[in-house]
Design goal:
This protein is of the alpha/beta class. It is built from ten helices and eight strands. The radius of gyration is 18 Å and the shape is globular. It comes from Variovorax paradoxus.
Length: about 290
């Protein structure tokens, strides 16, 4: 017997339409070309260090754009691609805004589905964050002022970092981050098990239970901004709204930031501009965390 569809959906097609962000991007090819050009530009113009290992597998590396001074706040960015596509080097352009604000930027690479499970991806991203908290001082960063940034699946992974018991599992202080700016994140992943993505991401009951941030929000001192493009499907707004409700219910601090005129791909463009609301949120977070 087929499993019942997630609440609110009447067909598999409805799930696909809700979670295929390209359906709301007016010119996907132009958006992809812009991203490639801007990422290449960032790698040419910024002090870009690629392939710094944080773990034992070949996939476990970070790319670092150090600030112009030591002891700088850190922007820890996790790319999207529904856990089965893209790489950190495809998103180097997000470092433009952080570098202009004199942040050190860390772009995380991780293995992709279906070569690994979502459990393993979460483990790798947690390992990357632990590496940064322990080692970023050697690259000019201040581990006390790390802001998480995540886009789409990277927003999901950023939320998983916030739900991590850092002291118990890694011997690090709980709530070690200055803040999180999560863009078009996925905080209830159950519907995706029924989507066009399932052959690649291969979710099952256990994976969904262990990796749905909405299911185990804990008290956390880290402030969050949950944002999305207003041209995206309503599902992305609903994901952020539900996550903020759960975040507040646990006694935590956070806010919603809808982006007028932005789609799923352009919703991260603000990270390229130090004057943008996204970068302003990052500045507020590190100023509040300043020792």
């Amino acid at each position: 017997m087929p499993l019942p569809l997630p609440h609110g959906f009447e067909s598999l097609q409805a799930i696909d339409e809700a979670y295929n962000p390209r359906l709301r991007v007016s010119d996907v090819d132009a958006a992809a070309q812009r991203q490639a050009q801007r990422s290449a530009q960032a790698q040419r113009e910024l002090p870009y260090r690629a392939g710094v290992p944080y773990g034992p597998t070949l996939a476990e590396t970070v790319n670092i754009v150090p600030a112009r001074r030591s002891g700088a706040p850190v922007f820890f960015f996790i790319h999207g691609g529904y856990w089965r596509a893209n790489a950190a080097g495809d998103f180097a352009q997000v470092a433009f805004g952080a570098h202009a604000m004199d942040f050190t930027t860390v772009l995380v690479d991780y293995a992709l589905c279906p070569g690994v499970t979502l459990d393993e991806i979460v483990r790798q991203v947690r390992a990357a964050a632990a590496w940064v908290l322990r080692n970023i001082g050697e690259h000019g960063g201040d581990p006390r002022r790390v802001v998480i940034g995540g886009h789409s699946a990277g927003g999901h992974l950023g939320a998983m970092l916030l739900n991590t018991p850092w002291q118990a599992q890694y011997g690090l202080p709980d709530d070690p981050f200055a803040g999180a700016v999560l863009v078009s994140g996925l905080y209830d992943i159950a519907p995706l098990r029924y989507s066009y993505l399932q052959p690649a991401i291969q979710l099952d009951d256990g994976i969904v239970l262990r990796n749905t941030p909405l299911s185990f929000v804990r008290p956390c001192r880290t402030p969050v901004v949950l944002t999305w493009g207003e041209r995206e499907q309503p599902a992305f707004e609903q994901q952020s709204t539900r996550m903020l409700e759960a975040w507040h219910a646990a006694g935590n601090t956070g806010e919603l930031m809808p982006q007028p005129g932005a789609d799923h791909l352009s919703a991260i463009h603000g990270f390229e501009d130090a004057a943008s609301p996204l970068c302003a949120a990052m500045r507020r977070m590190v100023e509040a965390a300043a020792p």
